[in-house]
Specification:
Layout: H1 3-31, H2 33-38, H3 40-46, H4 52-75, H5 79-100, H6 107-121, H7 131-138
Helix pairs in contact: 1-4, 1-6, 4-5, 5-6
């Protein structure tokens, strides 16, 4: 098999994993999810549009899925399931931003989405540098 394919897939997986991991890390450990939730950017934009429990729940959900999903993606474990969880974050973020401000900059979502969809479309057999590959080999 062409090793460039494996390295390309590894590169995409690592970059996307790091992007999501550090996004979640920043929200949880640097700023704190409660601080983000209570900020004008988050609560101020949505308090009249959505019930409080949805705003609160999505703040925690997106933060922890970004952190854990990004971390797990770095190792290539259960990759498809992790990608499904991460795409749910992008859907929530796109919906939330669109609800609060219909014309907003999609550039940070589109970059992640393109990398994520690329990983979903590439054959798993190309992902030789992953735990999924090692586990498939053993069984």
């Amino acid at each position: 098999m062409n090793s460039n394919r494996a390295v390309a897939l590894l590169s995409i997986r690592l970059v996307l994993g790091l992007i999501f991991f550090f996004q979640g890390y920043g929200k949880i450990f640097s700023w704190g999810v409660e601080n983000i939730y209570e900020s004008e950017l988050f609560l101020g934009a949505y308090k009249d549009l959505l019930p409080d429990f949805i705003i609160h729940g999505t703040a925690y959900y997106t933060s922890y899925i970004e952190l854990l999903g990004g971390f797990i993606l770095l190792f290539g474990f259960k990759t498809n399931y992790v990608l499904y969880a991460l795409v749910s974050v992008l859907v929530i973020v796109t919906f939330g931003h669109g609800l609060a401000e219909p014309i907003w900059d999609l550039s940070h979502v589109m970059f992640r989405l393109i990398l994520l969809v690329t990983l979903l479309l590439l054959p798993r057999e190309w992902d030789r540098f992953s735990l999924d590959h090692l586990l498939r080999k053993r069984s």
